[in-house]
């Protein structure tokens, strides 16, 4: 999936990624992201139907959500959120200037490796605030090539970005017996407190907060 046609087809029915059931991920995301977005101006890349715009980004001073899918953007606009605006755009071409925070939650890996490099080059040229990246760190699976923790560290460093903080978002139940056990444990009462302590091999998604080196 890469083009507007691909993503529009995916959005033929609402909530194609089942985000209404992503409460655990959203709570973990909120813990790491909220302090950076509270009262700030945010550019939310790959905002989809506005699920995160209406939840974890709702305390930002302003949010501009952009997405390549016109169908998703029209659903986000229909939420009529205060302090939020939405635009159909490819995040390889949108301007990054003028925001306190730029967030790419679960969307950068749709770009090829060369496109990701171009994206990060443009980002550091135009933006000197906080950059938030969230993605699976499981390597590649049958769907696509995601990231590894060391791959993200190297990719950000290569572009002059220093990591301020990172946080595990959920367990990877397909990581053998350990993954099944971890996924079961975090569903127990108070089990979510274990998520930050999961070893890397049992983690599905991780969220990184970074900033241009020297601006930390
Ligand atoms: C997996 S969804 C994530 C939605 C939301 N960020 C979340 O995590 O809840 C990925 C979103 O990225 C958007 N997207 C993918 N590539 C894009 C691009 N090059 N420019 C803008 N949006 C893009 C897709 O249309 C889709 O809405």
From TrEMBL:
<dbReference type="GO" id="GO:0008168">
    <property type="term" value="F:methyltransferase activity"/>
</dbReference>
<keyword id="KW-0489">Methyltransferase</keyword>
<dbReference type="InterPro" id="IPR041698">
    <property type="entry name" value="Methyltransf_25"/>
</dbReference>
<dbReference type="Pfam" id="PF13649">
    <property type="entry name" value="Methyltransf_25"/>
</dbReference>
<feature type="domain" description="Methyltransferase">
    <location>
        <begin position="42"/>
        <end position="125"/>
    </location>
</feature>
<keyword id="KW-0808">Transferase</keyword>
<dbReference type="InterPro" id="IPR029063">
    <property type="entry name" value="SAM-dependent_MTases_sf"/>
</dbReference>
<protein>
    <submittedName>
        <fullName>Class I SAM-dependent methyltransferase</fullName>
    </submittedName>
</protein>
<dbReference type="GO" id="GO:0032259">
    <property type="term" value="P:methylation"/>
</dbReference>
């Amino acid at each position: 999936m890469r083009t507007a046609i691909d993503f529009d087809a995916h959005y033929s029915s609402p909530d194609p990624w089942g985000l209404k059931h992503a409460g655990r991920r959203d709570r973990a995301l909120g813990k790491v992201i909220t302090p950076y977005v509270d009262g700030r101006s945010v550019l939310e890349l790959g905002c989809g139907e506005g699920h995160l715009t209406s939840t974890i980004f709702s305390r930002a001073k302003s949010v501009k959500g952009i997405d390549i899918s016109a169908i998703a953007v029209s659903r986000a606009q229909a939420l009529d959120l205060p302090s939020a605006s939405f635009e159909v755009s490819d995040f390889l071409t949108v301007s990054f200037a003028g925001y306190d925070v730029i967030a790419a939650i679960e969307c950068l890996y749709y770009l090829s490796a060369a496109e990701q490099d171009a994206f990060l080059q443009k980002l550091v040229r135009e933006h000197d605030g906080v950059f938030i990246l969230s993605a699976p760190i499981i390597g590649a699976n049958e769907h696509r090539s995601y990231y590894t923790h060391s791959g993200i560290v190297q990719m950000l460093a290569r572009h002059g970005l220093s990591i301020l903080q990172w946080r595990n978002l959920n367990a990877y139940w397909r990581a053998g017996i350990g993954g099944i056990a971890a996924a079961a444990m975090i569903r127990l009462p108070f089990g979510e407190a274990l998520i930050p302590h999961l070893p890397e091999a049992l983690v599905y998604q991780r969220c990184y907060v970074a900033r241009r080196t020297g601006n930390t």
